[in-house]
Here is the input.
Amino acid sequence: MTFLEKTTDVRKLRHWDGDMEAQYLYTTGIAGDIFFKGIMNGKIMGSKCEKCNRICVPPRIYCEVCFERLNEYVEVSKKGKIHTYTIAKIDIEDKRLKEPLIWAMIKLDGVDGGMVHKVSEIAPKEVKIGLKVEAKFKNKKERKGSILDIEYFKPVK
Amino acid sequence: MSKKVGVVGVGYTGFSSVTPDVSWKEIMFQAANRAYHDAGIDPRKDVDSFITCAEDYWEGFSIFDEFVPDQLGSVLRPTCTVTADGLYGLINGYMQILTGLMDIVVVEAHSKISDLLTYNDVLSFAIDPVFNRPLIDLGAHPYYIAGMEMKRYMSETGTTEEQCAEVVRKNKLNAMSNPSAGYEAKINIEDVLSSEELFAPLKRLDISPLADGCVVFVLASEEAAKKLAHDPIWIKGVGWASETSWLENKEWGRAVYAELASRQAYKMANITYPKKVIDFAEVDDKFSYKELQHLEALGLCRRGEAGKSVEEGAFDVDGVLPVNTSGGLLGVGNTLEASGLQKGLEVVLQLRKDAGGRKLPDVECGLAQSWRGVPTTSGAVAIFEV
Here is the structure.
């Protein structure tokens, strides 16, 4: 048996309003600390895996391929290529954006990885996979130690 | 030790956009009762272990697993929650029986996502808080990740937007024959192509709309199954895999998790040539392109050929490999953690010759595959046989 009675009058349906408030302080960790200190200084940092012969960006203290502990941090190129992208027409509230936004995975030159970020200073129609772009940092005074200290990536001229 | 595990009962509710008449506990109670009736068992006496699949944030409260026993009949019994898609729960139940410790195991997964008023916000919590989530402050809807995947998949394989639209047409049409589906429709690919572009090339109709619903499976060892009413549907192979969680390092054009999960399942099922053995498949289609990408990952068609095959009708109900006869998530609705069990359910119903107007003739082996949705790179596979 499941139910013998069911609501047939929608006016009698009830619900309870609730919300879950949650606030966190996310520790960035050893590698994150080095990365964001680099960002504050206008640099992009990676961590080097000698065993796999690759530089991981963003940096991490372990290599997910071979599980080695990574100790060496290096500054990497601020330039790279668009690996894939999308042209977003709505925002997180499902509201139509006034101007479409270009989100892209940018593979930075000479490293394994890169950044997912906004692409600007280009018309959406002009964006292509493989397009060369570079990071545009905010002025040093405005930087806070966030990926948003990079305002966006723009085409290399 | 028991060598075979069978599905001896299934129970489910319809899948629909809202379910204001029942609470999330009642939706579970309803599906569970139907499954126990189907299997001919009493949960208070006959079941050795209960498994539910859920995420706290989807449910809207913490430590959700504490709240599941009553409505499943599992009070004072071994009960646990797997924080993953329903197929992971099925695989856990399968393994519990293989240990020899359990004879009958119940697996449950549900969606009461209509209770959640801020789906986009909760989904955004699934994105790396330090390295990626700040983009949300700039307005990034989490589905931008799907738009980027679709772009890369199309670029690597030559798949077209028209071919992705064909998946939507097919699945919504299949759903017309599934009375449980929530989003059935007879449309053509122009309807899809002209629907609002949201995360180009992803359009509104390429996206599976959310749905409520619940699916319950009753699994049994070979010995226990013999004593029950139904001819069991046997689980022949299972697999699951996760890639890296770094968006910066994951594969954007390939579903490696599905490649690995299916190879594990094929090996277990002694399947060398999946195309020859698998008669039909229910694969994840949370977004239209995912069905094509997943079919290629599963080795059910060559890489880059799924788009062409769907256009030629290969995956239609009367095609060489019917795919998502239930209507898929595009036609049934995206039931989040329940979507893998919904796919397993369709495979079981087809193998039981119990799929009504969408019944496939002469099928003996079917595959169900799930993906946990953006931004994940995790998924599972289960292979069933009569």
Notes: DSSP finds 16 helices and eleven strands in chain B. The mean pLDDT of chain B is 97.
